[in-house]
Task: structure prediction
Amino acid sequence: MNKKKELVMSGIRPTGFLHLGNYFGAVRNYVRMQEEYECYFMVADLHSLTTHPDTKELKTNVHRVLSENIACGLDPDKVALYCQSHIYETSELYLYLNMLAYQGELEKTTTFKDKVRQQPDNVNAGLLTYPVLQTADIILHRAKYVPVGKDQEQHLEMARNFVKRFNYRYGEVFPEPIAFNFGEELIKVPSLDGAGKMSKSENQYATLYLSDDDDLIRKKVMKAKTDSGPAEKNSQKPDYIENIFLLMKLVSTSDTINKFEDDFNNCTIRYGDMKKQLAEDMVQFIAPIRQKADAIRNDEKYLKEVMEKGAEKARKSARATMELVREAIGLNYY
Ligand code: TYM
Result:
């Protein structure tokens, strides 16, 4: 007998090309999960409106994210790969959930506080209720697992709270969704300048994009912060050195990593050599994805078909959930 597959949902904002953080925090797990789970992966274009981007660039950016997801190995025949704005049911569920989300908790959200700092002249209600919309995305498919990076942990915690409140008030409709990384700690890919995580909005030179050409990758890696090396054997690594090792662990072989670990512990490490090796391993990793994504991005007809097929699958699941939701709330007068 065919066992019913468990449900998975996740999303990425179309705010530019994807970077290494998006890959190792999210997309790699999408690809790993696509065989064994029923997966819904979407481009979060509605979320991106909270920062008032130039909407003329939305289409290009949505195409970039779709192409890069596919280039990384996601198969649109196996998963629902769609665009958030194509599923109108999301907005309806978002509305109901907003009645269960409180000002105090929304104002305390780290991502909200960051945005208030970054864009003090545009603290709109959409920014405040960003985690509510994200919850709607997830539970619209009654998903259980949400493959995301470490930075999304708080949003998932909030999603569980909103779900608990919904179920308590209206009856059990939704499972509590959890952030997923195959039982491991969620991933945080560090930036190359030793400060914080790789991100689309912070220091561009400290972020490696899946679209970067070989020379740019080399330049960025060679600029990563280092020092003259440890003075004492087996000493503790400063954060910015630890980060270089972390990046190496993502793309290099264990022999390479062990060699530089030993060199570090013996105080013989040459960071120039280490960065050269890391740069080459990054080039090997990124170049094939970049080439595939370039080819897919130029095929607009194919991307349109992918979006249509994805939206159809997502709508089917969304409609079934919304029937249950309206029934549970009591919005069934005829
Ligand atoms: P976004 O677009 O900022 O990031 C997409 C995914 O990439 C992960 N990520 C990272 N992981 C590890 N290290 C990093 N340096 C790094 N940078 C980004 C993020 O954790 C995320 O998994 N709010 C979401 C989009 C969203 C969503 C959803 C996610 C909308 N609806 C429903 C899950 C479920 C966001 O802005 O991701």
In short: The two ends are 38 Å apart (CA to CA). Residues 300-329 form the longest helix (30 residues).
